[in-house]
Design brief:
This protein has 399 residues and is α/β, with parallel strands linked by helices. It has two domains: 82 residues, no CATH class; 262 residues, Vaccinia Virus protein VP39 (Rossmann fold). Helix content is 36%, strand content 15%. It has a nine-stranded mixed sheet. The chain has a two-stranded antiparallel ribbon with strand order 7-8. Helix 9 crosses helix 10 and helix 11 packs across helix 12. It is globular, with a radius of gyration of 23 Å. Bound molecules: S-adenosylmethionine.
């Protein structure tokens, strides 16, 4: 179930104030409805559904507040509802497969992902994220060395990729993180079965400059969907780029400042803002651990609470930690020692705090830290500009 603020797309104080203005309901009242999980009534209900562009039935269903009238309609249409949602799934892996540990939302398995996938129910997964070994002669903590002959690596890659395709539900999304070279091969496999969405370039330097070649500066993140379009695509917005020191503008927005969306700018397919995992507080193992921010973005964008997320290459368990914090069900597997992942779950609260911080700093034009710098240095803020009406709040593409 979602909270009222999640349904209204309110994730920070500025968005809350804006919604309060549009709906004519005070911030404290909106907070009361959200925090106490009280379903609004009377004029407040009418104003909320009008401002949010949602109708009462949808709001009730999303909040899980079902009154007698709605219950009657649900009972009358039980067969149709069953046809739409099917069985409520609770176990997607053949029970004979060896479990390493279980959490509130997920199950971790120890073993080879190929055989785990053979034991999983087809078309049961909403979102797959895969970060396989790159075939770079690396030794993993698991004791696995990933150097294979190129043909062997590509044959193995095709095997796990096809199994992932089978596991995806219609409308489900898959993201594959790899070196650009390997992702060209993976793309040619996926193009036969799925619909291409994006080749996302994640700007991270991963090697030294090479003579007579361009300096490799991005990882590739493939994004495909089963069927024509994704079942879930939650828009993600990021803050405006600004000067790290004074918080000032890096570009001249001229007369467009008041038309910038206060919820931030559109995410593009080039991601410059994913930090390498350096901070010892959050780093759990060697160089292969991905950033929590990357997984927070992918999981928030392509799944909803309660959806099932699968990652065939556990590593230090970044995908599973984020899925758990974001209340997604998950299935994990690691061929090596999974105790590292279990230990990471024992310390999940620190990571929860970090995810909260990431979420505070997205879907807003300026982070709170940038706002402070801009106030101190006299730079404009949305509220200091001449106001435009809601209808006029068009977006401009900054690129
Ligand atoms: C690049 S790392 C994944 C890192 C992970 N995304 C993270 O953020 O921690 C790849 C992992 O896949 C594991 N692995 C390799 N082959 C596997 C297989 N056949 N089945 C399951 N895990 C495998 C390796 O032991 C390694 O831990």
């Amino acid at each position: 179930m979602s909270s009222l603020f999640e349904i209204l797309g309110v994730s920070n104080d500025i968005q809350l104030k804006t919604f309060s203005k549009i709906s004519g309901i005070s911030v404290s009242k909106l907070k009361h409805y959200n925090d106490s999980k009280t379903f609004p009534s009377g004029n407040d209900l009418q104003n909320i559904i009008k401002a949010a562009g949602i109708d009462e039935t949808e709001l009730r269903l999303k909040l899980g507040v079902i009154n007698n009238a709605l219950l009657e309609v649900i009972c009358k249409n039980a067969a149709e509802i069953h046809r739409l949602i099917g069985e409520i799934p609770n176990n997607h892996v053949n029970s004979e497969y060896e479990q390493a540990f279980k959490t509130s939302y997920g199950t971790m398995f120890q073993g080879d992902c190929l055989s785990l996938m053979d034991n999983m129910e087809k078309e049961s997964v909403d979102l797959i994220f895969a970060d396989p070994p790159f075939n770079l002669n690396k030794d993993y903590e698991s004791g696995i060395n990933d150097l294979k002959d190129e043909t062997e690596y590509l044959a193995w890659t095709e095997q796990w990729v096809l199994k992932c395709v089978d596991l995806l539900k219609d409308g489900g999304s898959i993201f594959i993180w790899n070196l650009p070279k390997w992702n060209t091969y993976i793309s040619s496999i996926l193009n036969q079965y799925l619909t291409f969405r994006h080749w996302i370039a994640v700007d991270i330097k991963f090697s030294l400059p090479i003579r007579n070649k361009l300096y490799p500066s991005h990882y590739s993140l493939l994004y495909y969907v089963k069927g024509a379009k994704p079942k879930v695509f939650n828009e993600q917005r990021i803050p405006l780029e600004n000067c790290r020191h004074c918080g000032g503008d890096i570009r001249d927005y001229g007369g467009y400042k008041d038309k910038l969306n206060i919820n931030g700018i559109n995410l593009t397919d080039v991601w410059y803002d994913i930090p390498p995992v350096r901070h010892s507080k959050y780093k759990n193992r060697g160089s292969n651990e991905l950033s929590l921010k990357l997984l927070e973005r992918v999981i928030s964008m392509a799944s909803n609470e309660g959806d099932l997320v699968f990652d065939p290459f556990g590593g230090s368990g970044t995908t599973y930690i984020v899925a758990e914090i974001l209340k997604r069900k998950w299935i994990g597997v690691e061929i090596g020692d999974g105790s590292l992942i279990q230990k990471r779950f024992e310390e999940i609260d620190t990571q929860r705090e970090y995810i909260r911080e990431i979420q505070k700093n997205k879907n807003t034009l300026f982070t709170s830290e940038t706002r402070k710098k801009r106030i101190k240095n006299g730079h404009w803020l949305p509220e200091t500009l001449k106001k435009v009406s809601n209808n006029e709040q068009l977006e401009i593409n900054l690129k």
